[in-house]
Structures are given as C-alpha cells and as structure tokens.
Amino acid sequence: MLNTNNVTLAISAGRPDQFIKEPLPQVALSGRSNVGKSSLVNALLGRKSLARVSGTPGKTITVNYYRVDGKLFLVDLPGYGYAKRTREEQARWSALTDGYLVRNPNIDLLRLVLQLIDVRVGPTADDNTMLGWLNDSGIPYAVIATKCDKCSKSELESNVGALQTHPNIAADAPIIPFSSTKNIGIREVWSLIADITGAR
Q1: Extended beta strands in the chain, E state
Q2: How far apart are CA 179 and CA 25, in angstroms?
Q3: Closest C-alpha to 15, from 103, 79, 134
C-alpha cells in the first residue's frame, strides 16, 4: 500500500539535464495551463499546498518530480497553451517539454500519462496536439476530466460521453471525472496508477 504521506518534491527541473534518472516508474501529468494539474497533485497526495496552485496560468515553467513512498514519481509537466508567454518563455517550455517527451533517454520509465482536460469545454487545439502525440507514442494514457463539480449531472454525463467518442481520444483510454474540491476520482486515479506501474 503506497504511503502518500511519504512524499517529497525531489526536484523542480528547469533544464533537461536535471531530469531524474532514478529507476522508478514515472506517471506524468499533462494539460493546458490552469486546467488543474497542481490541484490533482495535491488531491492525490492528500496535501493542500505541496504543488503550488497559481492564480496566474503558465507562471511556472519547470518539470516537477514528486517521489511517492520511494516507489514512483509523479511528474508534473509545465502547462501549455498560455498565450501571454514571451518568446523566451515559450522556447524554454518547448525545450523542457520536448526534452521530457521526445528526447528523454529514460522515456522507458514513463509508464502512464494523465492527460487533463476541462470537462466543461472538451479538448482544445493544444489538447488535440498532445493527444495526437500520445496516440503515436504508444505510451498508455488516461483522460482526467477536471472541474466536473462545476457541471450539472446531465451536463457531466453528456460531456463525458463526448470525450468517450472523441476522434482524438483512444477508445481504450480510461476517462476519469475528477474534482479536487469534491474529492471525486482520486481513488480511481490511484487504482489506475497502481495497475499500470505495479506500485502499491
């Protein structure tokens, strides 16, 4: 049983050469800025502020590695789709993200990607680009449908149904409705992580 109280922020990597090479399975969190990645990290780990929730989307451009009970890493990738970034910031984001997903010599440690999508709006153009890469990569992924507490029951059912039939989402990709404020989906996400990584 994973002890989620035994968690440390191992490193906030600002350069690809800082990426962790420790041979533990990695689960990466991907999504646009302000979709709720930090909230997901905090909810999964039972913390309020381990991952900083920023009111300014796209503020932090680092790859954050959270070591969980010495058995796996949750890897929070920098959010994409933030239009107000400077060219220098966009270049840094691209270098980090490409370094992790495309040029990472330890990509075999990445066992699962949690692709966060706002269930109220569905995949954005940037989400679709990321989904295309995931489909081509062969890396298992799940769609985490965030902010589900902000939908009525009928809206949620309709919107999740739209994700299940979306042409850019693999038919076998799990879709997990999630809300950090209502503690919805936490158990399901951990169950999926355990099944794929073997970390329990």
Answers
A1: 7-13, 26-30, 63-68, 72-76, 110-118, 141-146, 175-177
A2: 25
A3: 103
Please give the Cα distance from 11 to 132 (Å, whole number): 29
User: Residue ranges of the domains in the chain?
Assistant: 7-197
The rounded percent of the chain whose pLDDT value lies above 90 is: 76
Q: Give the per-residue SS3 of 122-174.
A: CCCHHHHHHHHHHHHHCCCEEEEEECHHHCCHHHHHHHHHHHHCCCCCCCCCC
The class level of CATH for 7-197 reads alpha beta
What are the pLDDT digits (tens) for 101-129? 999 999 999 999 999 999 999 999 999 99
- pTM to 2 decimal places: 0.93
- CB contact at 8 A, 149 and 179: yes
Distances (CA, A) of 116 to 1, 67, 70, 104, 178: 25, 20, 25, 22, 9
For helices 37-44 and 186-197, the axis angle rounded to 10 degrees is 80
